[in-house]
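Reopening: Flagellar motor switch protein FliM still failing for me.
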Amino acid sequence: MVDVLSQNEIDALLAALSSGEMDAEELKKEESQRKIRSYDFKRAVRFSKDHIRSLTRIHENFARFLTTYFSAQLRTFVQINVVQVEQLPYDEFIRSIPKMTILNIFEAEPLEGRMVLEVHPNVAFAMVDRLLGGAGTAPSKIGALTEIETMIMEKIFSRAFESLQEAWKTVIDISPRLDSLETNPQFMQIVSPNETIALISLSTKIGDTTGMINLCIPHVVIEPIMPRLSVHHWFVSQKKSRVPEEVEMLEQRVHKAKLPIIAELGESSITVSEFMSLAVGDVISLNKSAGEGLHIKVGEKLKFIGSPGSVRDRLAVQVEEIVREGAEEDYDE
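Support: Ran it again with your exact input. Result attached.
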């Protein structure tokens, strides 16, 4: 990133050049020298900034869906937010998580490969405690999972993948399915140690208990859909045309919509005293002659000109002329 100088630094630089303390030619030589940037082949950059922004946007929605889901299941205050989205080697991710943690290994067809949803033990055991009728606090000492705890966690996290499916729907329709639940990271080898992964870190708060939920997505898993994570794809996908079935259904609903139609005989203005003194048999003069056409309005818009009549002993109006766009003003005059 290019450093931006403050105004004081600019003034000091100009003063040094004018006094001769710095040589402008030397500055030009330094600028023209070839800049070398170190590159670590063990930390290959596979995700561009554009990809990271798209993953952040997707999983911010995922965090909102998870908040709603866990709040309903646990019946307590739950807050989940995206802390950061970064890329790093898979081996570094394994070494950064606790030795005893909850690892939900899952697949998401049609993507090939496995991903991991790592849940900190404090968060996982707080959920179990809450579901079993407790206050939602994590135990001071965490040991091996019992069969009951394993079944509860598998059930609650399996349904949590529905939120992931909903969040990814704007990019691809996936069907996440829990493959297995592990507690020891050393026994989990879903990709090679040097494989680049996208790590989405979610800060989680359940009542007074806090912890992290980490989503590990190997690059090799989402590599086939990487072009869909670009900004260009997001804008193009918003312009998708409607399928014929949707257009037909929309037309049917429009045809069934009811509209108010008003046929105006004419208008007149009288004073309040004249209105109060009206009696049976009085005549009110309108602003139109008897042979002049009636204005037929649909809603507030003048659409037709017609003439009054009757059909089967009912008052009716016969449409004689269609008012085109732009001609309404001429009729109003």
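The domain at 41-233 is CATH 3.40.1550.10 (Chemotaxis protein chec). If you still see a failure, please send the error message rather than a screenshot.
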